[in-house]
Amino acid sequence: MRFVYLFLLIPYMLRAQQMPLMKGWQELTISDGLSQGMVFDIKQDRKGFIWVATKDGLNRYDGYNFQVFTHDPYNEFSLSDDACSALLVDRKGRLWIGTQANGLNLYDDRNGRFYHILIRNKGKATAGNYDIRLLSEDPEGNIWVGTSVGRPFKIVLPETLRQGFPEKADFTDQVRCIAVELANEEPNNVNYSFAFGADGQAITGMQDNVYTFNWKHPAGLKNLNLLEGTKPVVIDLYKDYRKDYLFVSTGNQLISWHNGVKKVIRFPGQGDALDVKIDVFDQTRLAITKGGNLWLFSAGDLFIRDSLTKQDVYASLPPQVFQITKALKDQAGNIWIGTAGYGLRKFNPAVKQFQNVLSGKSLGNLYVDGQGRTYARVLYAYGQIAVQQDKLTPFLDPRLPSADQRQRNMIQSRDGSFWVSNVNFETHENRLFWFSPQWKLLKKYPLPQGVYFGFTGNQTYEDRSGNLWIGATNGNLLCFNRQTEQFTIHHYQHLLQQSGGDVETFAFVSEADSVFWIGTQKGLVKVQHPLHRPVFSMYRNSVTDRQSLSNDFILSLAADPYQPGRFLWIGTKGGGLDRLNRQTGRFEHVNVARGLPNKVVYGILTDEFRNLWLSTNKGISRFNPRTFEFRNYTKADGLQDDEFNTLSYAKNRAGDLLFGGVNGLTIFRPGMLTGQRRQLPKLNIIGLKVNNNPVEPGDDSGILAGTIDHTTELHLAHDQNLLTFEFAVMDYTNVGKNRFRYRLEGIDRDWVEAGTNRFANYAQLPDGHYTLQVTGSADGDVWSEPVTLQVRVHPPFYRTWWAYLFYMVVITVVGLQAYRIQTQRLLLQQQVAFEQQEAGRLAGLDALKTRFFTNISHEFRTPLTLILGPLSNRRHKQPGEAELSMMEHNGRRLLALINQVLDLSKLEAGNMQVETVAVDVASFIRTLTSSYVSLAAGKSIQFEFDRNPAPCWVYADRDKLEKILTNLLSNAFKFTPPGGTVQMEVAWRPENSRLELTVSDTGIGIPAAQLPKIFDRFYQAGNGERRAHGGTGIGLALVQELVTVLKGTVSVTSTEGQGTTFRVMLPLPPAPGSNERPVVSVWPDEALTELACAPSDTTAQAGAASEKILLIIDDNADIRTFLRSVFAGDYVIMEAEDGLQGLQKATEVTPDLVICDLMMPHLDGFGFCRILKTQVATSHIPVVMLTAKATVEDRIEGFGLGADDYLTKPFDATEIRVRVKNLIRQRERLAQYYQSHPGPLPVTVAEPVSEQLILTENNFLEQVQTLVDSNMADSTFDVEQLSRQLNLSPRQLVRKLKTLTGQTTVEFIRNRRLERSAVLIRQGTLSVSEVAFAVGFESLSYFTRSFQEKYGVLPSAYTGDREDIA
């Protein structure tokens, strides 16, 4: 019924279309993009969008644009009907839309699709959809549908659709649609509201009454019959089950119930009975609209009232609104009103924070006196403002002449008197009026001749002495002495630029009377020590100095609230706001680009929070002088207007700020605005254009699969690189002031301060990855969380990775070809250039090295000559002296090494010349190699030599050829072990005149990784076995360079552990044969020195003073020879040339002492000592270690492994004799101790027996004694059995026991038996014969003789009193 009345009222509504809007209201109609003026419902979703259901489509509003959704017959996912009549945002944030003829819709905001449910009467096959007028959600999440005939429907969603969306457009078959039974379906009997109780009870209203039903198990509606008597029409209903409130509107009254109490609340006046609407704001307040008024109450406050009055009105509705269909409070606190035919109305509650009076009047100067009275100048005179009455009243005696009732400026002095600047409009006389505190005119003071008040700009200041300072026109500053009633004129005309108009004073600020600041339209004047002798200076704009005053027209001045002694703020007319640094005299500009709403700043006032409030031509701005942040207010926020006036600003004693403008006076308290805390606004990207074409989800461009506000990533082609993004802050308070900042990471380094511009444009974006970030604010203080959108611009096909890969392959192929050609040419050029560059430098170095080696060779050769000559003579005189031969041998070895170094030097300097002579190469090589036969025999190496048998005469350099062969052969013999093979092949190739030399061995070989370096100078392969053979690393380097000089080649092949082969090819031109040419072969000294003869194993030597065996282990034959010569007269000498061989001999022979080198092949000294000391047979043998390693760590390691002594090379012969003698003597003392103390020794014994030695050998002796004791009665137990049980050979056992005890094995067993027999005889339990047999003697006579030899008495006479019996 209500909707019928709405259509009847439409013709009467047309008369109000041209009426202006009231303060705080904004209208949104068809002209703003709304699809239709008939608004049925309004909702705001979670993202902040406003949704409006109209008779012609569904509208989504973002603050700037309406996006209209309508039915598309060719799109099954479009809205089912254009006439949208109800909206619901459920708990999951989904939007439901009810239509008048085509059922219910569910909107998916991710892709812009609508899904449909048919609301039909299943009992009638031909029935259409119900007209939906109401949507609601019960506590279980079920959707309730109210219809135009009063029948409710319950939509039960399956679990899969409780928060998601269906897959097909029509999902009626996926839900259960339950119709609540209704006796009669009457047209226009609308369900007005649903309310659901926790116990399952629900309530709804229809035009005739209020009904209840069970929402959990709906069966039918039950009339509560709450409305008695005449049946009024129910217009709207509200029910609160939790607090038990029920309100029913019935025309001009509200019928209410609470806890069983019924009450009627009446509306003011009569009005239209159909325009009452009850809506719920934020779950706590009810919004009641009626008769052009809006009331806001909680349910409790509303119930206690008897009537709603005009004084209770929260806001008056615009006059052209005759019927309210819906009221909504959005997330920012704005109130939205839906009308029946005139679109939307939005109310900004912030306007209530500003009080405006004197509407329609343009105000000038403002002044507040000490009593709190406010005065405003309108045209030529002031009036006193009566704020409560909203009017301007006269305050002067009306009997005064009209000319005396005009004022251009006024102040109140400290004594309460008033001083007024007056210009007589008849006589044009300028006078200063003195009024009493009650505004009684006391006296008039004419100004000095030629001095005038400004028409607009007039400022008067009272100093501490009570004198009045008046800023007059054209550079005149007056000082009025109230005591003398005289004027003093101070001039600063000389600072003013020439102009045709008067220069007036618009601002005047004093710093404790020490400095005056005067603002004029020609600049800022500074007056220093004005009370005594004023000095004037001036600041003005300079086009060449950007730190000068921004504009010369000064309208207002204010000291900085934080640093008043340092900064002064200046409001200008056209230059914005300036800050003067008083210390530097420089100005900082705050303009529109930094947030100032307008470049004209009329007034500056400071509040209690130390903010500056600025009046401009575009509203009022709150400015923080510390952070430079602005919060701007305009007419839409409740100001009198956006434009304010010159000198029209003041602050009263209560802290209120007053600003006058073209439409009255605005009064507000800053604390009411500054103290507000706003929630974070929401921002959405609402639009996208690509190449200036709008992009929609699912269009032909294929860019958007869903809506832009739900899109997180954009993929664009290379030619889709002109982008425009549109965004909006979901705060509708004053959308024109919403501010934005954005940045595109990858393009923008910093945030782009867009101000109120809500578009971001990017052109010609190169391909790549970008991130768009956008944030917004409604007030400039609180900013939204950044909204992020990933943007990927793909490259064209010819700039893709696989295209670049193809290009790279092509370029690489072409480049390699070009590089190869160019490299060859450049290498030749660089080689020539390098050689030329290095030639000079190397020539000097070569000459220096040649001189050095020549000199050093002379220095070496001279002492060597003096050494080798006498040695040679001495050796010939004493041929049997072995030491002389060894000394001469090593001297010649040193000479050979010097010769090799000199040869390398000559080769490097290029001074070695090839000197060829005719040589029978076959005979030459045969003679040369014959010298190695005896060497091979001495080392037990098989030496094979294959050659051409016939004489072969060639031109060759005999010296170089000989050095090549001897170095190769020496190297082969050095690294070939006994039993190996060294083979040499020589072949002459007459077809190409080449001599081929091949030297191969079956030695230790060379690791493959070291073969490339084998010919480097001073390089020695390996650090182990090869290193142990010694050498200097010169031989093979000399071979290669000699072969190179002879223009030949040398190569090597080797297998580690199998052997090495060297091949040399030398071009030797043939020479005619001659039997007369002698063949000379010289055995080189280095061959003799590097390859020692095979070691002799001397096990017995004539003249040895004792039978003590000394084993010498060293890989150097000369060292062994020297040591043999040192000890030959005292010991039997045995030799071994490596650790492994020495260990074998020590195990077999059991020497009395071992002298061992540390660095040896196969097994080094540490390894030898470790094994020797852990073997039972050899653990007692003392070891003297010889090494060149003299560090403390090496000595500690040697002693830790059992070495008894340590000597470093070179050593003294006398020292080593003494050390060896001491160790032998120590073992003798040990034997003596064992002989004198039968049985195992104690741990601690007297010196000089070594405790460590005793601890080591005690276990062995205990084991021997135990074995002998356990076989005591066995007469057959002998040396063989004992050694077998000890895992030793009889020889080893004899040598060890002899060393430890001084006894042979037989003696040790016999003495042990005799000691046991003595114990048994002393016990007296056995006879002598029984004792003899008990201790293993088969012959009693032998036992008796042996016993008497040991103890000096016969067994029968033995009493046991002897102390030497154990």
Report on this structure.
- With 1366 residues, the protein is an alpha+beta fold.
- It has 6 domains: 71-225, YVTN repeat-like/Quinoprotein amine dehydrogenase (Methylamine Dehydrogenase, Chain H), CATH 2.130.10; 356-674, 7 Propeller (Methylamine Dehydrogenase, Chain H); 683-799, Immunoglobulin-like (Sandwich); 913-1090, Histidine kinase-like ATPase, C-terminal domain (Heat Shock Protein 90), CATH 3.30.565; 1095-1234, 3-Layer(aba) Sandwich (Rossmann fold), CATH 3.40.50.2300; 1237-1366, Orthogonal Bundle (Arc Repressor Mutant, subunit A).
- It is 24% helix and 29% strand.
- The protein contains 21 helices and 77 strands.
- A 5-stranded mixed β-sheet has the order 59-65-64-61-62, with no helix packed on it. The protein has a 5-stranded mixed β-sheet with strand order 67-69-70-72-71, with helices on one face.
- α6 (921-938) packs parallel to α7 and α7 packs antiparallel against α9.
- It starts with a helix and ends in a 15-residue tail after the last helix.
